[in-house]
TrEMBL record:
Keywords: NAD, Oxidoreductase, Tricarboxylic acid cycle. SUPFAM superfamilies: LDH C-terminal domain-like, NAD(P)-binding Rossmann-fold domains. This is Malate dehydrogenase. Its EC number is 1.1.1.37. CDD domains: MDH_chloroplast-like. It comes from Limnobacter litoralis. InterPro entries: L-lactate/malate_DH, Lactate/malate_DH_C, Lactate/malate_DH_N, Lactate_DH/Glyco_Ohase_4_C, Malate_DH_type2, NAD(P)-bd_dom_sf. Pfam families: Ldh_1_C (PF02866), Ldh_1_N (PF00056). The gene is mdh_1. NAD(+) binds at G12, A13, A14, G15, Q16, I17, G18, N106, Q113, V130, G131, N132.
Amino acid sequence: MTKPAMRVAVTGAAGQIGYSLLFRIANGDMLGKDQPVILQLLDITPALPAVKGVVMELEDCAFPLLQGVVVTDDPNVAFKDVDCALLVGARPRSKGMERKDLLEANGAIFTVQGKALNDHAKRDVKVLVVGNPANTNAYIAQQSAPDLDPNCFTSMLRLDHNRALSQIAAKTGKPVSSIEKLCVWGNHSPTMYADYRFATIDGKSVKDMINDHDWNANTFLPTVGKRGAAIIEARGLSSAASAANAAIDHVRDWVLGTNGKWVTMGIPSDGSYGIPEKTQFGFPVTCANGKFEIVKGLEIDAFSQERINVTLDELMGEREGVKHLLGK
Ligand code: NAD
Ligand code: LMR
């Protein structure tokens, strides 16, 4: 029997990530090959003609799972009854800009969208914020939606997680698929802390296999942390297909579960590992039955604590910088 369609809102639908993302959602890569979807696409008014062009292309793919498409410049329409919302729409960073430069430009978007989600989305909506600065935007949206469970709101650290997987696969010569128990702590920014201390490949410790603290501190972490900037430098545009891919991975795992495997999600802290409650922070999680759960009880050594403190301090600074948007 055919399942009822799930409504998926995507903001910034005319943008470059949107162009990689929408076709994969409509193809069943995110919610399953047996799950019909209705896409609810939001962009600003001047971008609507471009969104309509993308919709023509979606139609021309004749995706069997795509049951409808809504195009709008009104968040109240875009988020009506949605099961999932991917908040991509925001101004991307250009050469020389840091994420904090985006705070002011993009923060205001997320108060409006948080409120619209609060008023119109399903009560168990799964929201993923991709638009940068992703953690703080997710925090703003969550704070603007007092009637929704804070755990409806997540932010994207999965691209950092996937980047880290790829670097470790290259270093060890082992396939990406063999690496388990990797995680990325903190902010989606160069301060993130990709942590392979608990990671295993075929049951063996990745830390022991690599056994090179200098590589960790001076090659691996800077490579993963500065990857976004390296892509902007090389392409003249920020990452798009890999960001869309990470968004698909994040929502798929949240909705369909991880079978006990660890993944990284930016989620509102429950106070674990000393991270203040509600801070949108990258944690190792497992997902089952549509819910995520933080992997608890991991030992945090001195080097890791120092890295976690740096990324947390940055997030606290960002939060301070958007207080005025939240009337605090
Ligand atoms: P883009 O400029 O190609 O597209 C952004 C789209 O958002 C445009 O169509 C724009 O009109 C739209 N938009 C702007 N304001 C809007 C609003 N208020 N409501 C709805 N739509 C709005 O940018 P992109 O390359 O697709 O990137 C989008 C965002 O994703 C950027 O903030 C970028 O920095 C971020 N990003 C995040 C990650 C991550 O890992 N978290 C990775 C890559 C990019
Ligand atoms: C990325 O990590 O590729 C994106 O967040 C884009 C950026 O500004 O770094």
